[in-house]
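Bug report

Summary: structure tokens for Tight adherence protein C differ between web form and batch submission.
Environment: batch mode, default settings.
Steps: 1) Submit the sequence below via batch. 2) Compare with the web form result.

Sequence submitted:
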Amino acid sequence: MDYLLSLLESVIGDPQLARLLFVAAIGLSAVLAVVTLGLLVTGLQNPVQRRLSVLKRSAHQGGHVAPSGLQLMLEQVGGRFGNPDEAAGSSTRTLLMHAGYRQPAAVQAYWAARLLLSLGMLGAVVVAFPFIKGISVVQAMLLVGVAVGFGWLAPAIYVDKRKQARMNSLRAAFPDALDLLVVCVESGLALPQSIDRVAEEMAVSHSELAEELALVNAEIRAGIPSTEALRHLADRTGLEDVNGLVSLLAQSIRFGTSIADTLRIYAEEFRDRRTQAAEEQAAKLGTKLIFPLIFCLWPSFFLIAIGPAIIGVLKAFGGL
């Protein structure tokens, strides 16, 4: 406390005014902290609020899922950022959906996590100030800014990395699912039964894609048209390959053409695109190897090849 007070006095220049502002800030912070914790605890312990949360989640997820205290707290804090219904089509909702977070309160929990982590990092830095010797006001402000920025950006980076990993996993599993779908359709199964069978077969090797296909089959059984259910699949995954498949299947269903022929043609085109992508990556390999060669291999090579000659020259000139 004394260290923070000395920093404030050095900035303001008036010791009495600095102490008055310091006491006022501590009192306001204590009041706000008590009120916030009281509201959160009251909301978490209120059986009516918990029951409403359970009913709301069960309406979206098809079962009574009891939310944890942390989930309720994040949803209550994040709910201050906006209405969940208004954020249904937002870019944050799309980002979280591509990352695998499809819960109704995912957007609120995401923003609440960013806010609480930023405040937690700020509190940790303020507590650590007395243990840091010789730090100036500018350095302290810079450290606070870095800590708050890290707390604000860390959840976004984590969600983006999770999105990329999930999309790569779905992209790698899509060719196998497409081949199995072609076999099932050509054997006489309808499209919903084929999707269900492929989801069962891929539940162990590619669980994420199997879950998405199972959701498509559940929507079809619930009465949603096949084309709309497949478009929902494309929206949830965000893959261009799935968008192309959905467009072809929608046209095939609309005009009454053979789904097996459509799937076979798309499978051949997808194999060609996969081969072209592999050839493109192979062509880029030579360019990507330039930097490791320059900074890692060539210095070692020149050291081994020219090093003895340089040592001999230095010895020869040193003996003159």
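Above is the batch result. After comparison, the two runs are identical; trailing whitespace caused the diff. Residues 165-284 form one domain. The chain is about 80% helix and 0% strand.
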